[in-house]
Amino acid sequence: MNTDQEKLNMSANRLEALGDGIFSVAMTILVIELRIPLVKENSFRALLHGLYEVRQELFCYFISFIVLGIMWFGHRMVFEYISRTNRYFIFLGVLFYMIVCLVPFSTRFLAANTLQWYAILMYGLNLSGCNLTLYAQWTYGIKRKTLHARILPDEVRKEARRLFLISPIMYAIAIIFSFFFPWISIGIYFFTPILYLLPNKIDKYLP
User: Fold this and answer.
1) What is the pTM of this model?
2) Of residues 20, 147, 31, the one with CA closest to residue 71
3) What pLDDT digit, counting tens, does each position of 121-180 carry?
4) Structural domain for 88, as ranges
5) Residues 65-118 pLDDT 10s
6) 82 occurs within a structural domain
7) What is the pLDDT of residues 17-76, one digit of tens each?
8) Which of 43, 99, 106, 142 would bridge with 126, disulfide CB 3.0–4.6 Å?
9) Are 49 and 172 in contact (CB under 8 A)?
10) Residues 89 and 147 sit within 8 Å (Cβ to Cβ)
């Protein structure tokens, strides 16, 4: 049997750094893939018309950028309480990053087919997958005290669970509405990130 001195000290710092890089690349791609407005005349009216032509892309970009920012914050909070890793925690992290990297693709697909059920479905599944895989990683990590960085208050545990599961529930509702009233689905996608900007119980643990 291996002694404690022989075991590897698998710090979570490298995995967290990889995640930061993944988020920065995904959020940058969202901007890069925006179509340049076609301004046919040298006038303010022509500029507004050009922006109007790409309104769906700008709208979807805005939602996805805010959503990724919120997910990055959740990802950051995970590593506030978890400082070490093992192979299963790393696997769940890589799975989460893989799904995050799909967000620019599903965003562009939604921008091109905004009121089509299949685009709304793909986008909702993509964002739900991000939330659920990060939640799976969080749940796995907090159940293993050997990975903990600090004591996890029960209030944080309960509130984190609520915050992780709000989005998948909202996105499931959006997907259902997409078959009948797709504009309601788009409204749900717009409204859901706002819920995370409201005060919550975790705020008092932040500096």
Assistant:
1) 0.91
2) 20
3) 999 999 999 999 999 999 999 998 888 888 888 999 999 999 999 999 999 999 999 999
4) 13-205
5) 999 999 999 999 999 999 999 999 999 999 999 999 999 999 999 999 999 999
6) yes
7) 999 999 999 999 999 988 888 888 888 888 888 888 999 999 999 999 999 999 999 999
8) 106
9) no
10) yes
**Span between the terminal Cα atoms of the chain, in Å:** 43
Q: 2 in a domain, yes or no?
A: no
Query: Residue ranges of the alpha helices (H) in the chain?
Result: 13-32, 44-53, 55-81, 87-100, 103-112, 117-142, 154-178, 182-197
Question: How many domains does the structure of the chain reveal?
Answer: 1
Q: Kindly state whether residue 8 falls inside one of the protein's structural domains.
A: no
Q: Is residue 171 part of a domain?
A: yes
179 Cβ contact list (under 8 Å, min separation 6): 117
Rounded to 10 deg, the angle between the 182-197 and 154-178 helix axes is: 170
Which of 149-177 are b and which e, b meaning 16 or more Cβ less than 10 Å from the residue's Cβ? Answer: eeebeeebeebbeebbeebbebbeebbbb
Helix, strand or coil for residue 130?
Answer: helix
What is the rounded distance in angstroms from the CA atom of residue 15 to the CA atom of residue 19? 6
Token match 């970009």: residue? 61
